[in-house]
Amino acid sequence: MLEKDTGEEPFNAPKPLLEIAAKTPDVRVDFLADADTTGGNSGSPTVNGRGELVGVNFDRVWENVANDFGYRPWLAATSTSISVIYCSR
To answer: 55: exposed, middle or buried (C-beta count within 10 Å: 0-12, 13-18, 19+)?
Structure first.
């Protein structure tokens, strides 16, 4: 995110977001999680093994869409979340 910020639309990230990114360079903006999601799950919490909020679900990989029509467990671990660090400011 820091590398892509130009200060001009459409690549002008808000200053508070850039400050968080600069303080946490090893934290990814988004990540894949092993949660089975379906259409309409965007905005759902992503929790870790201790039940702590770590992200917010916003997408899933294309291969997981097939699970809407017939569940296949080997495709279920593919939801995309944004890190809660970037949602809390």
So the answer is: buried
pLDDT in tens, the chain (89 residues): 778 889 888 888 888 888 888 887 777 788 888 777 777 888 889 898 999 999 899 887 777 666 667 666 666 667 888 888 777 55
81 CA to centre of own chain: 2
Q: How far is CA 63 from the centre of its chain?
A: 17
pTM above 0.85, yes or no: no
**Residues 6+ away with beta carbon under 8 Å from 52:** none
